Amino acid sequence: MGPSGFGLSPSSSLKVFQPFFVDLTLPYSVVRGESFTLKASVFNYLKQCIKVQTTLKTTDELEEQQCANCQYTSCICADESKIFYWNLKASKLGDVNITVKTEALDTQEFCENEIPVVPKQGRTDTIIKTLLVQPGGILVEKSHSSLICIKEGGQPKVEEISLKVPDNILEDSARAHITMLGDLMGSAMQNLDRLLAMPYGCGEQNMVLFAPNIYILQYLEKTHQLNNDIESKAKNFLESGYQRQLTYKRDDGSYSAFGKSDKEGNTWLTGFSAKSLNKARPYIFIDESHLNHSYSWIKNNQQDPGCFRSVGRLFNNAMKGGVDDDISLSAYITITLLEASISKEDPLLSNALSCLRKASVDVTNVYTQALLAFTFTLSGDNELRETLLDKLEKKAVRGDGQLHWKRDAAPPTEDSYWYRAPSAEVELTAYMLLTILCGPTPDIGKASQIVNWLSKQQNAYGGFSSTQDTVVALQAMAKYSEITFSDKGNMDVTVSSKSGFLEQFHVDKNNRLLLQRASLSKIPEDYTVTATGSGCVFVQAVLRYNIPPPKAKAAFSLSVKSSSRRECLGDPVTTFEILITTAYTGTREKSNMAVIEVKMLSGYIPVKSTVRKLEKDKLIKRSEIQADVVNLYLEEIDHNLVSLSFMVEQDIVVKDLKPATAKVYDYYETGK
Question: Where are the transmembrane segments (predicted)?
Answer without folding.
Answer: none
